[in-house]
Design brief:
heterodimer, B: six-stranded antiparallel sheet, 10 helices
């Protein structure tokens, strides 16, 4: 199965608005759950949408203004969904 | 900025068991006259008393060499001023003063005054250079011994080195590994080999190598203070820091041209700026997820640029670390560490500061560091100049 790509904007604004914590939490979560082989974390430079940040993309979906807990929940859901399909 | 750089540094190990040194090294720069004065003084005895004598001597020699006074008169004043040792009934400290001035002809004029320290060594590349020394007899009333100053005037072309040390270096190993110590010839040979093995060795590393060798000859228990200073005349190592997008889009091309034309290392600090450079240079940017920390976003990689970092958060952490003189080895492996390493390996840093404002950065809920770029660059430049003695310049775009 193809890896789920989670792409985080790591520009100054998004990084400071929460993507720093989200990235840390995601790394810890994937390690704990042994899911590193199913998810690819990628960083992105500023996408020019700072005022709505923090911005990130999970698979093909773009999200704005999410806190860490919501992101973890979304990733979890997406993985469950994929698992169900497989 | 100058096309010539005088790299001066020293290394020192105290006599075994001492917490304070009797060898004192001083360095001052007078940027208006392109002048550098460095002084090495060795006080009688060791510990606090020697330190007082040497500090007084070095400080006086230093101040006097910035004055137009005749150097023999300066030397007399120094010797008449020193406090007299209770046990030995003499007042005594050796000194070497190197007064270096940049000449317009890509050379450095050296005015060297030596009193009772081992003679200085000079090298042109890996070749040892000999020169004539004028000896001046001070004939001071009440002197306890014959007092002779050595005076030399030399011109040092690019690639020259001057090595000055205390007798702790030449006498290292005496009675242990070597009957008469390391001696001048031993130090000369070792230094020559070091330069041959590493022709670009910095003054810091060469001084360190000499001192460490002397220390090991003393079987890691120094019998006297071991001090060595090195002067190296070379081309400056230049770095360009580009941060912030230009105020108007029309200047983007101009910015990239400036980056292309620059000779030296190149840093782009700022995501949007990096994307502008990447677009115009047609080189892809890739975020390097291997080096980031909770406070600092990751670096990116791009062909033709030595380091690409995020802008404001990174620069603000760099400024704080430079101001506090944080040692690089204690830092986490992130963009701040990489940035500071490049700064430390540079002599001249030129900043091109884009003045476009990102309105989202003015949001009161995000860290105050993401404020005004111009203020931050001011802090960086002050830290580089005041703490690390680097030359800096800047332009806005």
């Amino acid at each position: 199965m193809e890896k789920l790509v989670v792409e985080l904007c790591l520009g100054s604004s998004c990084f400071a608005r929460g993507n720093s914590q989200t990235l840390q939490a995601l790394e810890a979560y994937l390690k704990e759950q042994g899911l590193s082989d199913q998810v690819e974390l990628a960083g992105h430079l500023c996408l020019g949408n700072c005022s709505k940040g923090p911005n990130l993309r999970i698979g093909n979906e773009t999200y704005s203004g999410l806190d860490t807990a919501s992101v973890l929940e979304l990733v979890e859901k997406e993985l469950y969904h994929r698992g169900g399909k497989a | 900025m100058n096309d010539l750089f005088i790299d001066v540094d020293y290394a020192q190990i105290y006599k075994d068991g001492q917490k304070i040194g009797g060898d004192v090294f001083l360095l001052s720069r007078n940027p208006e006259k392109d002048q550098i004065v460095c002084t090495l003084s060795d006080g009688l005895g060791s510990g606090v008393k020697a330190n007082v004598l040497a500090s007084l001597t070095a400080r006086m020699a230093h101040k006097l060499s910035f004055s137009p006074m005749d150097l023999t008169r300066s030397a007399r004043i120094i010797m008449n001023t020193l406090p007299v040792c209770k046990e030995r009934k003499i007042s005594y400290a050796t000194f070497t003063i190197a007064d270096l001035r940049m000449l317009p002809s890509d050379q450095v004029a050296l005015n060297l005054v030596e009193y009772d320290n081992p003679p200085a060594l000079a090298f042109q590349g890996g070749r040892s250079v000999q020169w004539d020394i004028e000896h001046i007899d001070l004939q001071r009333d009440g002197a306890f011994k014959k007092e002779v100053l050595g005076h030399s005037m030399l011109t040092l072309p690019i690639g020259s080195r001057l090595v000055i040390f205390s007798d702790g270096v030449t006498q290292a190993g005496m009675g242990k590994s070597l009957p008469l110590g390391w001696r001048l010839d031993g130090v000369r040979e070792f230094t020559r080999n070091q330069i041959e093995a590493n022709p670009d060795i910095s003054s810091h590393d060469l001084a360190q190598a000499i001192v460490c060798r002397a220390h090991s000859l003393d079987r890691l228990s120094a019998k006297d203070d071991i001090t060595c200073m090195v002067v190296y005349v070379r081309r400056p190592r230049r770095t360009l820091v580009v941060t912030g997008p230009p105020f108007t889009k029309e200047h983007d091309e101009q910015l990239v041209q400036k980056i292309k034309d620059f000779e030296g290392r190149k840093i782009v600090s700022g995501g949007t700026t990096a994307q502008i450079v990447s677009r115009i240079m047609q080189k892809p940017l890739k975020v390097d997820m291997s080096c980031w920390s909770a406070q600092v976003p990751p670096c990116s990689m791009m062909e033709g640029i030595d380091l690409v970092t995020e802008g404001m958060l990174t620069l603000s952490k760099v400024a704080t670390a430079l101001e506090q003189k944080k040692p690089v080895r204690s830092m986490t492996n992130d963009a701040v560490k990489k940035f500071i390493q490049v700064m430390q390996e540079s002599d001249q840093v030129h900043f091109i500061v884009g003045t476009k404002i990102n309105e989202a950065h003015q949001d009161p809920s995000i860290p105050v560091e993401i404020g005004i770029r111009r203020n931050l660059i001011g802090r960086l430049r002050r830290a580089l100049e005041d703490v690390y003695l680097k030359e800096t310049s800047q332009e806005y775009i």
